[in-house]
Amino acid sequence: MQVSDDIEVVIYNTNSEMRILDNGVLHVIYSDGIVLEIEDIKELQVQFDLLDPKPRKVLQHLGRYSTMSSDCRKFAAEHSPDLDGVAYVIHGLAQRLFIRFYVKMWKRDKPTKVFETVPEALDWLDEL
Predict the structure, then answer these.
(1) How many whole angstroms from its chain centre is CA 52?
(2) What percent of the chain has pLDDT over 90?
(3) How far apart are CA 63 and CA 78, in angstroms?
(4) What CA–CA distance (Å, rounded) separates 78 from 102?
(5) Which domains does the chain have, with CATH numbers?
(6) Residue 92 CA to chain centroid, in angstroms?
(7) Of the candidates 59, 77, 60, 57, which has an alpha carbon nearest to the alpha carbon of residue 69?
(8) 49, exposed or middle or buried, with CB in 10 Å at 0-12, 13-18, 19+?
(9) Is 4's pLDDT higher than 60?
(10) DSSP strand E in the chain: where?
(11) DSSP string over 42-55
(12) pTM for this structure?
């Protein structure tokens, strides 16, 4: 899928939507109140593989009260594409603790950081 600079493409998945921002960052927004499963990650990967050119930086924005199953966390860490950096935007203490634990447990070869707001996350990604 070729992405044009003047057209915003939004890809809707079962529990998420994804778009390429003006700065080339892939922004994935997960629905509120869900538990992500392996099927959700596979669905995202299929869509990511169709993007041309491939984004090198990803902003993952978890919905309120959303989380990932244990199997999903493991699968996502083991099947992550080669990226320059991943920023997570979370809501609240429970998600913050969950994501920080996930990031530390599943060491990635790419820079990964957790933020409370989208602008903070985008500023960090722009610096990479």
Answers:
(1) 17
(2) 55
(3) 23
(4) 12
(5) 10-127 (3.30.750.24)
(6) 17
(7) 77
(8) exposed
(9) no
(10) 10-12, 16-20, 26-30, 35-36, 57-61, 67-68, 85-89, 112-115
(11) HHHHHHHHH-BSPP
(12) 0.86
